[in-house]
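Exercise: predict the structure of this protein bound to KE4.
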Amino acid sequence: MLTQKSETAFNKAKDVIPGGVDSPVRAFKSVEGTPLFIEKGEGAYLVDVDGNRYIDFVQSWGPLIFGHGDKKIEDAVIDAVKQGLSFGAPTEVETKLASEICMMFDCMDKVRFVSSGTEAVMSAIRLARGFTGRDDIVKFEGCYHGHSDSLLVQAGSGAVTFGTPSSPGVPADLTKHTLLAKYNDLESVKKCFENSDDIACIIIEPIAGNMGLVPADEIFLEGLRTLCDKHGALLIYDEVMSGFRASLKGAQGLTAVIPDIVTFGKVIGGGMPVGAFGARREIMDKLSPDGPVYQAGTLSGNPIAMNAGLASLTKLKSIENLYSSLEAKAKRLTQGLKAAANSVGIPLQVDVRGSMFGFFFNANPVKNFDDALRSDTEMFARFHQMMLQEGVYLACSQFETGFISTEMSDEMIDKVIEVSQKVFKELS
Ligand code: KE4
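Solution:
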């Protein structure tokens, strides 16, 4: 693939945007080569400024479950734009989307919209602290919940890719309230409750996607629920990534353990900037203007984004067996990659949850962040670069998750597997 125009564009971008990107993971720092500048998306494909086409397993890091240029979502946005871009006043479409979401989750009577996953999680933490009157929170090594100060501690995703899990600029005075536990390790969580009687909440990605794909064990989630009930803390599921991706109900479609607060993002906006957080009435009514916990946003519930989200959600609900067919494709891909790698002696751990898939260059199963860090990131970087040369656009970090969209056919998946056979052979 010739990528001269991307290289030129990247050099220009670096003059006026830090690192040339508006979000660090896009800089390709943990893999080789120059980030591609994208001209357009078409169904399952991306087209870069040099005219190269790639099958897109990133889908804007999750939102585009229907691929690029979905007609229903596009039409909803175009119709909404004709009414005006933003009013800073309530609109009925916000109520419609809120009702659609609340009726899907037993734990949710109300939901509030914001403009990003970071904002949703930051607000959920403040709400949990306000509701319980406590200051400490428990998070897990390797989980990423956006870049608000309290949570940028031993984060996954971009932060760990750069090997700077706890970012400069975050006051120690703040992060002393953030207790770290080990994913899938209940003893480490019990220790947090021994060390603090001021824990407002536990926040977890119930299906971790920011250390690579690492699902929580059911017995582990049950243990978290029991600990929260015993100590009067709230359980927050961060489903910004897994929401509407692992199943129609996200992780909650796959576990019997019910959280107190849920956060969303990505798919819920259909590709537009949307985040959300919801809970039962007694918790949500603590929020301003009815309650004392302040939270606000100029473009929160923006009608264009709401219409995109509503079109996305309506379509998700209308397709029979949507997630079983997406999961079948995720399994087809990962089993094919595993067989191709193993056939030349390269160990590969793979896993799927609905339309989410992950793989680790690792000889052992990955159950937590320490396991994930033992993966061969050098091998990952070379694999990523060689697959890109063959027109396959994978997440540019070992500590991310891949996605299947409805626009991907078995033939496309089989072609990717065929390409990987060649690449693994060269790598071995
Ligand atoms: P945003 O603020 O990026 O919309 O959402 C933050 C967030 C919160 N919670 C979870 C579980 C998330 O995965 C994210 C964001 N995910 C990353 C990709 N792993 C976004 C990509 C990026 O940072 O550019």
